[in-house]
Amino acid sequence: MKISVIGAGNVGATTAHILASKGFAREVVLVDILEGIPQGKGLDMWESAPISGSDTLITGTNGYQESANSDIVVITAGLARKPGMSREDLLAKNTEIVKECTASVAQRSPNAILIIVSNPLDTMTYVAYKVSGFKHNKVMGMAGILDSARYRSFIALELHVSVEDITAVVMGGHGDTMVPLPRLTTVGGVPLTDLLPKERIDAIVERTRKGGGEIVGLLKTGSAYYAPAAAVVQMCESIALDKRRVLPCAAWLTGEYGLKDLFMGVPAILGKNGVEKVCEISFNDEEKALFMKSSEAIRKTMLEAQI
Length: 307
Ligand code: APR
Hints:
Blueprint: E1 2-6, H1 10-22, E2 27-31, H2 37-47, H3 49-52, E3 57-61, E4 72-75, H4 91-108, E5 113-116, H5 121-132, E6 139-141, H6 144-159, E7 166-167, E8 170-171, E9 179-180, E10 186-187, E11 190-191, H7 192-195, H8 198-209, H9 211-219, H10 226-240, E12 245-254, E13 260-271, E14 274-278, H11 285-305
Parallel strand pairs: 1-2, 1-4, 2-3, 4-5, 5-6
Antiparallel strand pairs: 7-10, 8-9, 10-11, 12-13, 13-14
Helix pairs in contact: 1-2, 1-10, 4-5, 5-11, 6-8, 6-10
The chain binds adenosine-5-diphosphoribose (APR).
């Protein structure tokens, strides 16, 4: 298993680091345009291998040749948000960057599965899909695991229980219109709605929607990376080990949920072929309306990207 990570910034480098610690990849290649950065970070990580006991070889480079024949490519290249910016504010610049990176990757790793992280997520995944020409099951975006993890972490804090026992899914676009689903959230099998009053659940949902912005507001110099990187690694692991985990991610819809021709956050089975299947949930009217509103927001950004 060879995994390349394009962009050796906060998300990319953290992803490479966690990948190495997990050890399921034989090789991780970090690619970035900044001279010395991917090489330096890659070498530093490799030098930690004798201590961590990982034989995953990490290297860094400014070219794409070393990424050739990757099984999975994670694209994190692009600008990150600063305070006051929405993910959509990154659209023009990141479209150019993701286009360029995808073309370079697709040419050298024609059989790879692409996981996109750059924002605005759903639209950048669409850009990578169009530019690569890959089948839709081999292109996906990382957002749902992150949004769900934020939601689960807030519930664990509120209830003072283990994060492990909270099962939840956040769907829709990766932005203010995302759709957390309290009705389907359980804590060790107990419905969340039996454990918390509506106003507390609403507050957690709102904090989840603004979770990325909360981190940007605190960091001031960039956006979140520990939780995003952990989410990417969970997707890589399910694909690399063909675990067929059911994980929320931005997948291409072909009629599921009554929608088609867009990437949107839905629960999907991730295995050796990428998105093996999109799982459909029966929504109530309120959930359906939120999901549809979210799809409209994604389509608007897709149009603005002019792909
Ligand atoms: N090719 C390769 N790398 C590039 C390119 C390119 N054409 N353009 C920019 N990069 C690199 C930058 O040099 C930088 O090292 O992408 C890296 C981005 O790193 P950070 O600025 O630290 O941003 P990060 O926090 O990692 O976020 C990256 O992921 O979560 C999203 O919104 C976030 O779009 C952003 C992306």
